[in-house]
Amino acid sequence: MAGAGANLRVVLLSGRICSGKSALVRLLKEKHGAKIIKTRELILKKAPKTKPERKALQLAGQRLDKKDGGAWVGEALQRSIDTYAKAQTPKGLYVVDSVRIPGQIEAIRRAYGAEVHHIHLTATDEELRKRYEGRSREDDEAVAYDELKRNRTEREIEKLADIADIVVSTDRCNEEAVLVRATALLNLYPRSNDAVVDVLIGGQFGSEGKGNIVGHIAPEYDLLVRVGGPNAGHQVYAEPKPEKYYHLPSGTQRAPNAKLLLGPGAVIYPKKLLEEIAEHKIDAARLTIDPRAMIITDEDRKEEEKRFGSISSTAQGVGVASARKMTGRSDYKDKKTAFLARDCDVLQPYLGSARQILADAMVAGQRILLEGTQGTGLSLHHGDYPHVTTRDTTVSGCLADAGIAPSNVRKVIMVCRTYPIRVGGPSGPMAHEVDMAEIHRRSGIPLEELEKTERTTTTDRARRIAEFDWLQFRDSVQLNGPTDIALTFVDYFDVNNRKAFRFEQLSEDTISFVEEIERISGRPVSLLSTDFNWRNVIDRRAW
Fold first, then answer.
1. pLDDT of residue 309
2. Nearest to residue 196, comparing CAs of 401, 354, 363?
3. Residue 71: how many other CB atoms lie within 10 Å
């Protein structure tokens, strides 16, 4: 969590009985991995004969405060932090669950300076009384609220609001809102527009070789995010056979230390996802699936195969499931029309808030890679309808599906093929189609190899292929606003490009083509894929 790996931060909580300190302590521990220092336990250590009851603890605390003005709390905190840190430089979030007098706070501030954050919780007397009378009071000997209020320290506690860094009225918001308000000064949530997200999308009709590019850059990232559904398969080179990804990010194996996230806009076929998870040996600690992601049922797949074969759909059920998510809202209470990840028993170990995962990563300054699927030319809104997919495949659509603000984006990498493809059959128009025999003639790549390569990952269908479409490319640049272009299948210009490991080793025609790409787009061609092997990307990035 965000607090666990951060620099040392000490939080001091103050407030009257039932002001909400216990709830905030619990949430700080659950959400941010805070280490809790309980003053109750500190008192019992310093005065072991004290009865573990609220009134007795109040009196014991007062006696300790009288001896040294509250310095004992700072000393006990130091010992606790040293114990947690085990002789290493202490890091993370430490919370003292209840400070009672200014002297306690001043002693801790002297010891830790600017790392100390004092949060005071308050509520109306009427609300506090109501909470106290409604709670379990096993340790309070059935002491009345008015009697506890008469305690000298309790009477003075509200004055600590004057010296607190932040004061939160807990009777005006729920526990989660108190957490957000109280911890804003701790920087546990992103409050700036730090650009830590790179987005990779396809600029044509899918199958641009995005997996190949992701496999090259993935080791640079801490969090890999995937959107879309299993109607798009990405491949990454590996031995003895390529890795195929339908739900999981393509960098899953290349970046084994990176966390994985499927966003709320993802569409999931559980059976296929669980197969991927097993194949790549992914545990629940590494993968998070947002509860709002949509589930594909077997009925969805059957319906899609029946309805959309006329436009060469992959028939994976993504479209029908996505439609149910939109149209089934009124029936959701019966789970008959909409079926989300949070309703799927087999996915329960992986469920978690995408928003929280992203917030934690951004606060920690981690680098995030968002991997889109399919291509811009298949966008539901911007493609050649009806030969489109069921979502917006542009950068904007991918960000929305993941839950990432545009201002957090650092780089946009648009992947394009030298010869765009579409799935075989009535899959939609392409300008200036050619056949594999012509690519064989131009490039020198064996025809049998081309025919084997140019089959779809998901459905294993033969692909159609065409000349590079400059008009479509210009439109994709306009729609996506890329900072960089990744050009793939450059060996289709010349098989000898497979032997190129530097830009200047590419054929003259290839270099001229790259120059024209850069001239028309105004963006650099920063990555070039020359083949499908371990050393298959020429990297010209300046970042």
1. 59
2. 363
3. 18
